[in-house]
Structures are given as structure tokens and as C-alpha cells.
Predict the structure of Glycoside hydrolase family 5 domain-containing protein.
Amino acid sequence: MQNRIFLILISILFFSCQQDKNVIRIHPDQVISTDFIGNGVQWSAYPHADTENAEWGKLMTDAKWDMNFHRLDYMQAKLFRVFDQANWRYLVGFDKEGEPILDFSTPEVKAVEKILKYAQENNITVLLGEVGTPYKVHDLNEGHSDKFSGADDPKWINGIVAYLDYLINTRGYTCIKHFNFINEPNGDWSSVNGDFKKWRAGVELLAEGLKAKGLDSLVSIAGPDAVTRYDNPNSTYTGSGWVEETAKQLDDIVGIYEVHDYTEYDLVRSGGFEEYHGAIAKFAKQMNKQIIFGELGFSRNGQENQDKTNEDPFACEDSQMDVYKFSYGVDMADAVIQSMNAGYSGAAAWALDDAMHTCGDLGNKNELKRWGMWNSLGTEICNDPADENMRPWFYSWSLICRYFPTGSSIVKTDSTSIEGLRLTTGIYGDEITVAIVNNSAVDNTITIAMPTSKSLKKFLYVDGERAVDANGFPIAVENDIKVNDVLELNVPANSFILLTTLEY
């Protein structure tokens, strides 16, 4: 009899342990990162269509801008990467001595100020930056290619410093917190062609200029802006090596670490994205600094994507046609969830709008970079008003931006141990948000121990089932979920779920 009771007790204890193992726990005391900046988008000021002087004329009317502002009002982006170029905005020519002529009152500068004004009013962190040495890339003005000697030319650096001084001190755009110097400098397409020494020399000169102007306490240099998974044969270092060498050689200058990745679907869907980029994030963590993605998207190199690009009369080869597909919203959510768990303090999705860029930024209307959440000029350029509609991935990305506020702590969440199913958690005061993705073909039911007594809202992004309001913006499918310590949750195949106590 005693043996039977003992066996029953052991069985109960074993069953309880097994049940406990199946509960996914959130650990507010195990912080991955603090002072989270937040997620957002890359947004350029439409260099082909922003003014009467632009190649296409002023197609970006006030109504077009307002459409973007309205959608961003819902998204509540926390980070803008503003990708620009001196000779698109304020570098208007050269005098007889070959010195740059700067004009900060141009209509082109005022166009950029539309973005900056919105960011300032909405407490959005801006990462401003230039493509590269003017007229060395996107040489739209013949005869000027020899006006700058390279990345460390004081004439260019002084122009950048003067521009930042104007925007921050004169115009009051204190939302500009970071500046990245040369887009993707490790690339063979960049104006330094992967030459780390040339890039470093420019960064050092820029740091001196910012300090001399008293701007160093207002705006920090972000770097290296490298594409982590691209290894340029002309460069001394691999893509990830650029981050490591920046930490070794320039940490006293760089205020925030920042990288790009156009990643592979297999890497994300397998969960390997977190491990790969977590190893890179450690270089920043060792220096007690934050790291962000200045650009995040998926590789365009697959044959299926290139075939679709070729079929679109308005797309250039540098396009990701999956932005039209429901699945892109799941994959982008998966990538950013893994980035947050890897210690990144934010990610800007490339990109907000197809209408911003063309191949080589040469302004050819049949060479749009199809990467956006919509195309503001679908009617004007493509004769397709429907192309201006929000694409599916706006749904998941907007929620990821909206419900992880600046200042959140990203905390450890137990692994689900289920293939393709991942979670990340943000704590903001006594509010909590949990983002969940099931990037597999199998429905799953999970149990989460939720450290809150507040009721939760639930948003669901699954093919054919996306609840929206009259504007097409996400709305919760449940608004008053009681937790009672644990929450049992069905997570459909190929879906994204967001749970939150936050109210807007």
C-alpha cells in the first residue's frame, strides 16, 4: 500500500514538472537590453519628386505627404533612418576656386524638414546620413566628379557639420540623435569601396568637426553602417569584421553601433538570425553601447524574385517583390523579434515607400525600388491607384513599432522549443507587450506565464484574417483578455500575434 502511494506521489510530481516545462515564462528580472530606442522605417525625402526642380517635378503634393503622415500616426514609429545626399539638398555648386556653395534655404532642404518636423513633434529618433562623397556616387552632375578628394576631404566634412548645425541649432531638430557617415562603406558599391582606413579617416575628421562646433553632445556618429553578411573582396575585413574593428579602433568616436542586413529567409525561419546577429551585437555590448539595424529587409537575389521584378514594368532589379505578399509580414516580424532577443535596440525597415528611390537614384520612372509598404506615386508613375494602398506587411510592422515604446526593457522569454515559434517581450513601466511569430506550417497551442494582472489586447495577423478599422489600420481581435497567471494561446501556422496591456 505504501509503495502504491509513493508511486502515485512520484507520478503526480513528475506530471507537475512536465506541465511546468510546457509553460513559457517571461523573466522581467533578466534584462536583455534597456532604454530600447524602438523600431521604425527608412524614409527619404523623395529626391525625384519633392520639388519643382526634381526630375519628376513636385509630384509629392501636400496630400501625398499627409497620406504618409496619417499612416505613420498609427504606426507610431520610434526610429527614422533618413537616407540623403549633400547634392540632393544643400550643396548647390562650386565657386571659381572650387569651394562648395552651401544653401540651407533650398526647397530640397525644406522637403527634408517635413520629415524632421514630423519626427520632432512625435518624439522619433532620427538617424540622418549621406550616401557617400558627393559626386562620387550617383553622379548626377557631370564635370563635378573631381571636386572632392574622398571621404576625408575637409570640404565635404565641413559641409556636413554646417548642415547639422543648421538643422539642430538653427531649426531646432533635436530629434536628430545620430549621423551615419557613408552608406554601407564595406560594399563595393560605396564611395570608399570597402576601404576601412579611408572610412575611418573621414569618421575621425567628422568627429573633430562636430566637437569644434559643439555638436558632439547633441548628435553622435553611428557606425559602421556595414552590411554584416557581405564580404567585399576589396576590403581588409569581413562585414561583421567591420563592426569588430570599429569597436577596436573607433569606439571613443562612435556613439552607437549600426548595421544593415538583407537577410535570407532560411536564416530567419530556422532561428539562426538571432544567433548570427547576437554574435555581432556582443561587440557593442562589450563597449556598453547600443546597436541598431539602420536597414533591415530580405535578400532580393532569389530567382523567383528576379523573375517577378522583370515582369513589373516599373520595378528595377533592386526590388523585393515579396512586399506584396502576406508572408513578408510574418518574416519581417520574425526577423525583428530575433533582433530584439539578440540585444538590438531597434530596427528600421527598408523601406517605407517605393516612390523614394530608383536604381542608382537616376530618376528613371520604370526603375522604382520596390521595397515599400506602399507607393505614394502609384497613380502618377504607374497609372495604378491601388499601388498606393497599404501592403500586408504594414500590419505586423506597425504593431511592432507601436507597442514597443522608446525606453522599454527587452527581457528574456523562455524558448518555446517549437520549430518556427518565437516570442519577445518588452516591459514599459507596469505595461507589457509580447510579440509572437509562428513561422511554420503547423498550428500550435502554447501556455504563457504572464507577469501582469492587467487585461490584454490581442492582435492577429494571419492570411485571410486581419482585423482593420475604416482606415485599414490594425484593430484588436480581443480587447479584455484576463490572464489569471497563465494564458493559453492558439498560434496559427504562418502567423503573427501581439499581446499588450498598452493603450493609445
Observations:
- The longest helix spans residues 2-21.
- Residues 26-33+412-500 form a domain with the Immunoglobulin-like fold (CATH 2.60.40.1180).
